Amino acid sequence: MAGTGAPDRAERRGAGQLESEVLAALWATERPLTPAEIQHRIGGGLAYNTVHTILKRLYDKGLVLRDADGRRGAYRPARNAAELTAQAMHEALDRGPDPIAALRHFVTGLSPDEETALRTLLAGEGM
Questions:
Q1: For residues 47 and 96, what is the distance between their CA atoms, to the nearest angstrom?
Q2: How far apart are CA 40 and CA 93, in angstroms?
Q3: Model confidence over 83-118: pLDDT tens digits?
Q4: How far apart are CA 6 and CA 54, in angstroms?
Q5: How far is 117 from 61, CA to CA, in rounded Å?
Q6: Nearest-5° angle of CA 57, CA 79, CA 32?
Q7: pLDDT tens digit string along 38-68?
Q8: CA 51 to CA 101: how far, in whole Å?
Q9: What is the spatial distance between Cα 5 and Cα 1, in angstroms, rounded to a whole number?
């Protein structure tokens, strides 16, 4: 409803998108953040309770760690973005019936720069 301050349904973000935004906010800093700090960084009229719920889900999944900070908690990522992406890739390969075929399809979709980086890594350079 226009003028009520309520977010437009078209602007609503799904839980997966919100989790990604919260993780991005945490990865963008060197220190743990409170739910209020994350709410401020994400913006978009997101309710404090929503941020807290997303953090609890991420904590339950082992994706964030909670640091005690007086009466309130601050959160930090359990893994960096590259580690989390690598874990997701391993899990995807483990789920499929033919991981070699999946790798073949993955590699054929790499950009020239990504292909060069992969060849360098496989040759043992840059590790």
A1: 38
A2: 37
A3: 989 998 999 999 989 999 999 999 999 999 999 999
A4: 20
A5: 31
A6: 70
A7: 999 998 788 999 999 999 999 999 999 998 7
A8: 39
A9: 8
**Exposure letters 39-76 (e unless 16+ CB within 10 A, then b):** bebbeeebeeebbbebbeebeeeebbbeeeeeeebbbe
**Tokens of residue 49, six digits:** 């309770």
77 strand-pairing partners: 64
Query: How far apart, in whole angstroms, are the C-alpha atoms of residue 95 and residue 72?
Result: 39
Joined tokens for residue 79? 């893994």
Assigned CATH for 13-77: 1.10.10.10
Tokens matching residue 38: 């994350």
Which ranges constitute the DSSP H helices of the chain?
A: 15-27, 35-42, 48-60, 81-95, 99-108, 112-122
CA distances from 74 to 10, 44, 66, 80 (A): 31, 21, 6, 17
